[in-house]
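quick q for whoever's on today - can somebody do inverse folding on this one?? i tried earlier but teh output was garbage lol. tokens:
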């Protein structure tokens, strides 16, 4: 199959575009029926495109987009049996109302609308029977994900060189966390506790008494899905983009928490400019030392201080002082990584610019090769880099414009609010917006 797909992607035959489309459809069909690790990994790929000239990007993006929220569902009777096995009674007895047909289906489970006995409208996420065992078996196969990423990476012409084993290891760890819905419930509750009452970030509350390892019940939220949000006015899309940016990066800076799965199916957008965040199975906790490293690297990059930046990388262990890359190349890579902040402000994310930046940033034979060949990317940085690419892709689809450097200064320098949303956040968090690395609000 792999060789056949690669031949189709090279365009062998009279109609290369049609061949590429057939290859993409076949690839996604195989993923869609995998119900486990490979499908979840496919979802993680689905919001990042890397083709050199864009020739096949739209083909693969359209096909992979189906994995974001349209996975094949399980039959109603199977879902009902799983609810009964987990909650001790059929759905019709546990809930006042339970819709047999799911409103969303994904890689590990599917979501049903329901109403609790006390009248609370909820979403019930039901895990596919046997998926946990299948995933654990897949994760025990160390070569599976690495091979999957290598093949998928090779299907896109001109893709940047990536350390697929490092990516596979990090993704494997995150997927392993998602199997147990009690873990996801704890993650979601942690975010809900911190963001309860927030002016523009919404996190559904968990119904713990109706949650088990394989069934997760939470408040039901109506909202605009990603595909429809792209049709909104640009002012609203800019606001949504800033909300995403503040939630993802601000959570790290203030709380040492990272929602590590920014694919578009995890958001519900609202006309009032707020965003609801979903799916907290993939969450990472960062140490205060890691947050401090991010802050210091960003500050040195913004200041153009190449020597300081080099020392920070030595201290982290990512570079060997005995074999250092040129300091100006280290600075150049970090300026590319922080382009939304180092570029002219306000900065607009765009698909073409972010794809080109990603290709250059991770191409070993590209302009940053001397740095990349010497840099040892630890698992935390692998996570950050993957999520940076994912978040940039989502913001690019929104074509969001913002004062990103001013927002960074709010977090890293305790600077004044850069935008209206910054004013609202300052009122919510209070005047002490120091980093989690320095005590911060982690114990809020």
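ok took a stab at it. sequence:
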């Amino acid at each position: 199959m792999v060789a056949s797909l690669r031949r189709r992607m090279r365009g062998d035959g009279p109609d290369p575009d049609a061949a590429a489309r057939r290859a993409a459809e076949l690839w996604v069909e195989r993923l869609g029926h995998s119900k486990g690790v490979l499908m979840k990994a496919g979802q993680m790929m689905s919001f990042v495109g890397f083709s050199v000239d864009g020739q096949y990007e739209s083909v693969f993006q359209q096909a992979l987009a189906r994995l974001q929220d349209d996975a094949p569902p399980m039959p109603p009777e199977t879902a009902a049996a799983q609810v009964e096995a987990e909650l001790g009674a059929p759905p019709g007895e546990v809930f006042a109302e339970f819709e047999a047909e799911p409103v969303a289906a994904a890689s590990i489970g599917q979501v049903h609308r329901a109403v609790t006995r006390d009248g609370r409208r909820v979403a019930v996420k039901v895990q596919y029977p046997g998926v946990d065992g299948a995933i654990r078996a897949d994760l025990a196969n160390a070569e599976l994900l690495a091979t999957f990423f290598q093949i998928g990476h090779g299907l896109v012409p001109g893709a940047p060189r990536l350390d697929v084993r490092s990516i596979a290891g990090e993704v494997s760890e995150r997927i392993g966390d998602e199997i147990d819905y009690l873990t996801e419930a704890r993650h979601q509750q942690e975010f809900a506790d911190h963001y309860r009452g927030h002016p523009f970030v919404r996190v559904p509350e968990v119904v713990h008494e109706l949650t088990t390892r394989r069934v997760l019940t939470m408040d039901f939220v109506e909202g605009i899905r990603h595909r429809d949000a792209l049709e909104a006015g640009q002012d609203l899309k800019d606001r949504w983009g800033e909300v995403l940016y503040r939630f993802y990066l601000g959570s790290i800076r203030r709380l040492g928490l990272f929602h590590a799965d920014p694919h578009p199916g995890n958001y519900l957008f609202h006309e009032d400019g707020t965003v609801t965040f979903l799916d907290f199975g993939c969450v990472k906790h960062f140490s205060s030392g890691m947050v401090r490293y991010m802050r210091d690297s960003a500050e040195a990059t913004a200041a153009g201080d190449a020597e300081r930046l080099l020392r920070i990388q030595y201290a982290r262990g990512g570079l060997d002082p005995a074999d250092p890359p040129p300091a100006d190349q280290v600075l150049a890579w970090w300026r590319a990584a922080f382009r939304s902040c180092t570029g002219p402000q306000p900065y607009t994310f765009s698909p073409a610019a972010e794809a080109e930046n990603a290709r250059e940033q991770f191409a070993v034979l590209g302009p940053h090769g001397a740095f990349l060949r010497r840099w040892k990317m630890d698992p935390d940085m692998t996570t950050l880099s993957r999520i940076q690419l994912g978040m940039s892709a989502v913001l690019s689809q929104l074509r969001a414009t913002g004062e990103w450097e001013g927002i960074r200064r709010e977090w890293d320098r305790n600077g004044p609010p850069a935008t209206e949303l910054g004013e609202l956040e300052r009122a919510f968090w209070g005047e002490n917006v120091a980093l989690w690395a320095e005590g911060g609000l982690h114990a809020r």
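fwiw The radius of gyration is 22 Å. also Residues 256 and 410 are 16 Å apart (CA to CA). so keep that in mind when u check it
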